């Protein structure tokens, strides 16, 4: 069994967090991750309602779960924070913006707070805000992320804080998980490996597309946010699978901001699940996701393989 500051803090059987992924990780996916001993998180975005939060958080008694919120969304949506607090998760992440204003209310309610960081300055801000857990999110990650790679970012973050640091971005095998733990991470925060799980809120077509995708097929782009006229801060582009829309518009975001026909195409494509025009967020480890499997099996197999890899690492020593 792998024990770290994270497993001790949240009484987990394995130091694996199922990343919050808006549109993919609802209560069923979170429960499947937690059922394997990890900590499943529910992703909440600006297009969600307080009722959605309450519904998704109604997961079986006794299973720990978390909720992932976005700071830039919360600024105008206090109802999402209130609904989250009312659901009493073990952990709430407040990422993509300053977590400062939200740490007090969450901790007063007895809820631990995490935040994803992408730079050294983010770490200083998170520590000053009083968070409990820091997630070093590398640019390999699926979804919105920063520009620094996971391993150098993780190493630097570990020099900047004594708080538990969890590694996110590109971790999809026991080898990868063992590497992050050996580097000093207290756990791993996995999103892309859970994109082909039947418990997800994503469509069967999206799950099939993920299984077919190669690791070279992702792009870090603002094109989808600009097209949808979303107020995503520009410092966090999103890593998605390359498709017809990104081939046409990535790098031409200024022009896209004035093209209403292209904007409508993405908005409509999201409704009709047209994967060549709508964003399908996925990280660089997508090439390792080749079968549809329960999240419980993904987390169980990942943990078993990480234990094996850690034993092999120990054998390197004389
Ligand atoms: C489809 C998708 C949606 C995501 N949505 C969110 C979100 O709502 N909130 C959040 O904090 N992070 C979100 N992320 C980022 C993840 O929390 C996490 O950092 C990332 O998936 C880890 O890297 P990996 O994809 O390489 O495993 C999302 C990622 C993906 C792939």
TrEMBL record:
Family matches, as Pfam families: NMO
Gene3D superfamilies with a match to the protein in the record: Aldolase class I
GO molecular function: nitronate monooxygenase activity
Keywords noted in UniProt: Flavoprotein, FMN, Monooxygenase, Oxidoreductase
Ranges in coiled-coil conformation: none
SUPFAM superfamilies for this protein: Inosine monophosphate dehydrogenase (IMPDH)
Keyword Flavoprotein annotated: yes
PANTHER family: 2-NITROPROPANE DIOXYGENASE, 2-NITROPROPANE DIOXYGENASE FAMILY, PUTATIVE (AFU_ORTHOLOGUE AFUA_2G09850)-RELATED
Name listed for the protein in its UniProt record: Nitronate monooxygenase
InterPro entries tied to this protein: Aldolase_TIM, NMO
């Amino acid at each position: 069994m792998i024990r770290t500051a994270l497993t001790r803090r949240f009484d987990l059987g394995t130091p694996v967090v199922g990343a919050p992924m808006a549109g993919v990780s609802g209560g069923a996916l979170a429960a499947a991750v937690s059922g394997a001993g990890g900590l499943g998180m529910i992703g909440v975005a600006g297009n969600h309602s307080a009722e959605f939060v309450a519904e998704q958080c109604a997961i079986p008694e006794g299973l720990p779960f978390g909720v992932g919120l976005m700071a830039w969304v919360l600024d105008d949506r206090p109802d999402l924070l209130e609904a989250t607090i009312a659901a009493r998760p073990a952990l709430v992440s407040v990422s993509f913006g300053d977590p400062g204003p939200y740490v007090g209310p969450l901790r007063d309610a007895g809820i631990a707070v995490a935040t994803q960081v992408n730079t050294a300055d983010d770490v200083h801000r998170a520590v000053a805000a009083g968070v409990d857990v820091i997630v070093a999110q590398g640019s390999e990650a699926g979804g919105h992320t920063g520009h620094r790679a996971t391993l150098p970012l993780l190493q630097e973050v570990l020099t900047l804080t004594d708080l538990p640091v969890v590694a996110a971005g590109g971790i999809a095998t026991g080898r990868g998980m063992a590497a992050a733990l050996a580097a000093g991470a207290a756990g791993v925060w996995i999103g892309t490996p859970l994109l082909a799980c039947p418990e997800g809120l994503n469509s069967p077509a999206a799950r099939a597309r993920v299984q077919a995708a190669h690791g070279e097929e992702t792009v870090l782009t603002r094109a989808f946010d600009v097209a949808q006229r979303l107020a995503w801060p520009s410092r966090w582009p999103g890593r998605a699978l390359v498709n017809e829309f990104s081939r046409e518009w990535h790098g031409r975001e200024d022009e896209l901001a004035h093209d209403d026909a292209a904007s409508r195409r993405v908005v409509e494509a999201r409704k009709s699940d047209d994967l060549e025009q709508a964003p399908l967020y996925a990280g660089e480890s997508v090439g390792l996701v080749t079968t549809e499997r329960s999240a419980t099996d993904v987390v169980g197999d990942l943990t078993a393989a990480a234990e094996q890899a850690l034993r092999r690492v120990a054998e390197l020593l004389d």
